[in-house]
Design the sequence.
């Protein structure tokens, strides 16, 4: 019988950095340095892509592209992308370690999954150099994965499936149906869909919510439910098989997926 053997986690907004704030501020400040204001909503919209592709996606937004053209009298070029990416990296590396605290219940849930015999892989929009900061800092706080794949050396990052396939090779997982991709962005959802694995989105702590844990706690219940429903709908529209409120639901969901696969084989 096929069953889930591997969960492939995203990092910021999924396992660490509640609300995915580290890259957002760096994107905003990197564009502000050339006199272009980017809103937090715009900065979050392409989240999950490799960071240089994220920069391109920001330049490609109609409002931002037009603001650049008005200011500089031309359309942006690749040198502009490289310049903003260099500034983004400078800003990000200055604060990255500060955003490596595990999200509530992540460590405990990962322990439960490991006791179920499940391997823990991971993919990210960060580069290997960035993850060389994140991985040991998160480990100091108790969060570890069995594998981490970046897009360095692969044909492309998200939403393409290559990082998931590399995890499967590294962790010796032979079937895509034995894999859950778990993440907090639309790019995470599409990465899982494109790989043909079970694609699961998470709402609380996510980039899609874009709130701190304190902000979530302070929201009136009706407003919180409204915002969570909007995130859930966007994730399902992107192709998610399932969307959970928090990682606490993941072990039970995996048991449900296992039962579903067993029934489909009868």
Sequence:
């Amino acid at each position: 019988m096929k069953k889930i053997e591997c969960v492939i986690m995203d990092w910021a907004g999924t396992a660490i950095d509640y609300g995915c704030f580290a890259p957002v501020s760096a994107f905003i400040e990197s564009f502000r340095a050339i006199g272009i204001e980017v809103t937090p909503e715009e900065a979050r919209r392409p989240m999950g892509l490799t960071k240089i592709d994220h920069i391109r996606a920001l330049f490609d937004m109609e409002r931002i592209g037009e603001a650049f053209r008005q200011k500089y009298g031309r359309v942006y070029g690749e040198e502009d992308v490289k310049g903003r990416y260099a500034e983004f990296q400078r800003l990000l590396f200055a604060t990255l370690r500060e955003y490596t605290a595990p999200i509530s219940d992540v460590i405990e849930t990962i322990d439960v999954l490991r006791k179920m015999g499940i391997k823990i892989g991971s993919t990210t929009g960060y580069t290997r150099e960035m993850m060389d900061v994140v991985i040991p800092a998160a480990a100091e706080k108790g969060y570890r994965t069995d594998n981490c794949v970046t897009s360095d050396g692969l044909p492309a990052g998200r939403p393409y499936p290559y990082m998931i396939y590399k995890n499967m090779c590294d962790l010796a997982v032979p079937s895509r149906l034995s894999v859950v991709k778990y993440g907090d962005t639309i790019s995470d959802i599409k990465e899982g869909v494109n790989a043909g694995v079970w694609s699961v989105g998470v709402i609380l702590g996510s980039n899609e919510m874009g709130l701190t844990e304190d902000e979530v706690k302070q929201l009136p219940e009706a407003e919180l439910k409204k915002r969570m429903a909007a995130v859930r709908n966007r994730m399902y529209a992107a192709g998610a098989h399932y969307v959970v409120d928090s990682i606490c639901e993941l072990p039970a969901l995996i048991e449900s997926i296992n039962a579903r696969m067993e029934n489909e084989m009868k």
